[in-house]
Amino acid sequence: MSMTLNQRTSETHTSPTHRPIDVQEWVNEATALLEPHSVVWCDGSPEEAQHLIDVMVDAGTLTRLNDDVRPGSYLARSEPTDVARVESRTFICSIDPEDAGPTNNWEDPSSMRDTLRDLSRGAMRGRTLYVVPFSMGPMDSPMARLGVQITDSPYVVLSLHMMVRVHSEVLSSISQGASWVKCLHTVGAPLSEDDADTAWPCNDTKYISHFPETKEIWSFGSAYGGNALLPKKAFALRIASVLAKEEGWMAEHMLLVKITNPEGKSYTVVAAFPSACGKTNFAMMQPTLPGWTVETLGDDIAWLAPGSDGRIHAINPEAGFFGVAPGTSASTNPVAMDMLSANTVFTNVAMTPERDVWWEGMSKEVPEGLIDWRGELFDPTSGSPAAHPNARFTVKLGACGSLASEWDDPEGVPVDAIIFGGRRSTTMPLVVEARDWKHGVFLGATMASEKTAAAEGTLGEVRRDPFAMLPFCGYNMGDYMQNWLDMGDRLRGVGRMPRIFHVNWFQKDSDGRFIWPGFGENSRVVEWIVNRLEGAVAATESPIGWLPKSLNTEGLELTDVELETLLSVDPSLISADLDDAEEFLGRFGDRLPEQIIRELRATRERLSQ
Ligand code: GTP
Ligand code: SPV
Ligand code: MN
């Protein structure tokens, strides 16, 4: 079925019977407020995608890359002011500020609505309003949730085609009574009759607002990533974490993989690392240890719920990857390099003279004649990078050569291990196993990591980032910690509990070099973790959990001192880190679960022994 995207409201695609009354009413309200010149109901079809591409190539939003080297692929360059998530402009608008908690920006819901309504009046003038129905997770999964995004950005619609399951059937389910999340988005750049459009319309004023009580999202002013692809962080983490708390499950910033050992036994593992800290790399790991395989299920978000077998089951609610480009190469992530060989939208990478892509870390030599991410001839002596450090690729899950067959399984996969991790140049060892679930929750609650380019702020600054969810928890983080503890209570004794670990690939030596080789060599840590699950290796007790007695480092060039640094803890560093964690936890006041304080005290006691 073909369609035209720039047509009048009366001529749009889906027949009225497919339009649920409540969605239609919401679209009507939005149309009255935003005053778009047309409204288009999207169905996620290839024809629709092609039309969006044509519109954007015409508008200069997308540049077609060389079809011989990057078939079906495009480059987008954002405004230099719109390059990452804006945490300072992200709001949780609960009625009670305590419900947003000390780690979120809070604003009163009705005053936020007033602000956004004022800003949004006529904000889509001269633009098309797209209505995009989508499912997070397989449509037939009990764990799936539905949503509809309104947006005036064709770039966002095309990205949603790749990132989530966009389908008219979603509207049928809503008509039959399924609940859904309202995701309202505008770039906030109205056009008057004689205005020429820009390639990346956006607004200097930005709001990424969430209404946890009514499960709504309203985003204004940005077209970039998590600010604008509302199913991703805004829905699948912030709003979903609220749903999860209410309904007894968990929405997490986690990769999801299936690992198979040389004996052919498979395990599923989830891992929560902060933004740009290695989830995509882990999700597509090519183990250097012979006989091991890692298959990909997801690289950013996992929803975890108790299954009928009493175990925690996980799904990836997304259907695509929005991954960090810089640092991706044939040696660090060959699976991704292969996946990006066609049908990919690149944003803010550099372009070569033959209209192929390039970014820092892709190759040792910098190609001559690069056009940088701002669209200017690149000067390698300038000291600034050719690709923006948060440049990203958008591609469908199906393009991933290591995709596990279970990726679309409505029941999800039962989880064997949960891994936390962060970017710590010191303090945290390569791997440590939690003593039990409660202690594991404490390790998650006190995680910290150095800041990356994925969000605005000071690079390298260590900040507490509980469960890698600091920017993504839609309610009070203290209550969220309680939800983790409750999950343990619910499952204990019923089924096999996942074991909890913490990893750190990022310890540095005194010259500032990474000590651990990382990437495919992380399979050595995976081997230790799996062997722990099997009860096949002994471990050494430490104040923060169980450390490896030994690790398979055959073939690695590591000195004994380096290995010792990787696999041990320095009590004085741990003690200082606990002080920092305690201060952070203190911010939650009486919302901090008692159990977390007990774990902190117990850690201090073990330290003093
Ligand atoms: P978001 O998509 O932002 O949530 O992040 P992500 O966790 O998926 O980030 P990604 O995997 O794309 O992280 C990329 C960064 O981590 C790049 O700078 C990589 O070089 C670096 N990285 C990933 N794995 C390793 C590793 O094992 N060792 C080292 N030293 N760096 C790594
Ligand atoms: C992250 O920042 O953790 C991302 C990218 O995964 S974004 O979707 O922009 O949030
Ligand atoms: Mn992420």
What does it look like?
The chain has 609 residues and is of the alpha/beta class. The protein has two domains: 10-60 and 86-247, 3-Layer(aba) Sandwich (Phosphoenolpyruvate Carboxykinase, domain 1); 251-317 and 406-608, Phosphoenolpyruvate Carboxykinase, domain 3. It is built from 16 helices and 30 strands. Strands 1, 4, 5, 6, 7, 8, 9, 10 and 11 form a nine-stranded mixed beta sheet that branches. The chain has a six-stranded mixed beta sheet with strand order 15-13-14-24-28-25, with helices on both faces. Helix 3 (97-100) links the parallel strand 4 (90-92) and strand 5. Helix 2 (46-59) runs antiparallel to helix 5 and helix 11 (437-445) crosses helix 16 (594-608). Mean pLDDT is 95; it is low at 1-11. The structure holds guanosine-5'-triphosphate, sulfopyruvate and manganese (II) ion. Sulfopyruvate binds next to helix 7 and helix 8.
Compact summary:
The chain is an alpha/beta fold.
Main sheet properties: 9 strands, mixed
Number of structural units classed as domains? 2
Count all strands and give the number.
30
CATH topology of the largest domain: Phosphoenolpyruvate Carboxykinase, domain 3
Q: Ions, cofactors, ligands: which are bound?
A: guanosine-5'-triphosphate, sulfopyruvate, manganese (II) ion
- Poorly predicted runs of 5 or more residues: 1-11
Query: Which word captures the global form?
Result: globular
Q: Identify the CATH class of the largest domain.
A: Alpha Beta
Architecture of the largest domain, according to CATH?
Answer: Alpha-Beta Complex
The SS-based structural class is: alpha/beta
Structural Rg: 24 Å
Distance between the termini: 71 Å
SS element count, helices: 16
Strand content: 15-25%
Give the proportion of residues in helices. 25-40%
Mean pLDDT: 95
